[in-house]
Design brief:
The protein has about 350 residues and is an alpha/beta fold. It folds into two domains: about 130 residues, Rhodanese-like domain (Oxidized Rhodanese, domain 1); about 210 residues, 3-Layer(aba) Sandwich (Rossmann fold), CATH 3.40.50. Helices cover about 50% and strands about 10% of the residues. The chain is built from 15 helices and twelve strands. It has a five-stranded parallel sheet with strand order 1-5-4-2-3, with helices on one face. Strands 7-8-6-11-12 form a five-stranded parallel sheet, sandwiched between helices. Strands 9-10 form a two-stranded antiparallel ribbon. Strand 4, helix 5 and strand 5 form a beta-alpha-beta unit. Helix 3 runs antiparallel to helix 4. It is elongated, with a radius of gyration of 25 Å.
Amino acid sequence: MVLKLDLLADLSALDVDDIIDVRAPSEFAEDHIPGAINLPALSDTERAHVGTIYVQDSPFKARKIGAALVARNVATHLETQLAEHPGSWKPVVYCWRGGQRSGSVVSILSQIGWRAQQLEGGYKSYRRLVKSLLYDAPLPHQLVLIDGGTGTAKTRLLEALAKAGAQVLDLEDMASHRGSLFGLVGPAQPSQKWFESQVAMALGRFDPTRPVFVEAESNKIGRLIVPPSLWQKMIRAPRFALSAPLPARAAHLARDYADLIDDPSRLEDILEQLVPYHGREQIDLWHALAGSRDMQTLAAGLIEVHYDPRYRRITRKDAPKPTHIELSDLSDATLRATAENLIAQTSGSEC
């Protein structure tokens, strides 16, 4: 049986138990359908080997060797990851373009008795849907930006909005980057395509008639580019700009960057990048604060000397005038109440 996708939202409504990507691990690592599991029909080495035989020897020989390798690999999957699946299991399987790899796996799974389906067009058909949404046409969604200086707890406010039932697009989480000097979260950022897959699938699940809250960003988050359709919508979206007392911001930032205390060499490298902007004397002072583990005083200095002046210099062409929200503190209760007020203000409005 062949399954056809017309919209990304169709993936959320699929009546299947698992989405299986049978491409090689390197293909899967670059990008895949969110929620898919990787059960390779051919490893990276095997795929390259079969491709070489196809070009340099003969397509028939390549298909014969490839079939043997696929059969062995599927046998391994059946004896391991798939060993406990019941007879009612319903997977959908895809490869690069819905060809021999996924077709062979679907045939084997169907012969066993599972109700396996092949995704028509494979990964390429899915990628076309992502590109169509994020590159080829204006987004239909109503965005609301959460803006404000560094340390104003924008990410925590997004979390409070999500808990209150709002639609939230957390780009920094998807990009594994805080969007600032101390950006990287985890070992590395994802590929551009995997970032776009996460964004597209989230948007595909959202109701376009309801507001989607997203943190104000530049057009790049770390090394990743905000897709053009989303970026064009963001720069014209209504904005709510947060402000809060410096001590509260510094305490929040110190907690947020606590991981750097245990990675002093990384913190030192980051501060060294600021020498051209603030001079040797200022950076040495900040190094001393980092060395004494006084992150709150360091955070306050960075906010006053580095972050706030840069934030004030940002010009947002074509951006609507922001609505300012003055927070008395950054407690969970304050952020929860702010989230509820924002939902009430934007509910039913034309964003």
